[in-house]
Known about the structure:
By secondary structure, the chain is mostly beta strands. The chain is built from no helices and 16 strands.
Amino acid sequence: LVHDNQAYVANTLGLFRVYETSSSLTQYYIQNLVDRTSNSQNDAYFSSAAIAPNGTAYITDSDGIEVFHLHSDTLGTRIAPLPLAGKSNGYRIDVDPSGTLWAAYYTSTGDSSTTGVYVTDWDGASWGAPTLAAQTTLAQDSYGYFEYEIDQSGAHHLATYRQGVSHFTNATGAWYLSH
Length: 179
């Protein structure tokens, strides 16, 4: 992740700001901004992180989304619950150019017409109605089989892997399989 020419890395241990400490590009200082290192059971279930244009960072974990303000180095109000109750990992999040947070997640409904990857937006108080973006069946541990990004024009993109890679987008308004 990059914001204001600063690099950030997120994983199950937290959110880290990475500083270059020499011009050799081989020495770095890492500052832990959202610390999960005390989580001895490793149950944070990190799956995704995103940074809004205003410097607000979002990091998913087992039951919500941590909010961290990069410009003031302070934690914000936690977003909970996640969009789909009972699903604690596998979320992919991103922020559109206007700063709206979006989440994508896979769910199997038992009906092939409604099983797939859904997307929904956060309006600051609640999650919007989910939209089926990619009608597909993924493996049980599906969080490892799709990626979600929003480009600079605001178009959403999903890449899923099931016997090959498929790309879904809403670049023309409605979701469709592009290849």
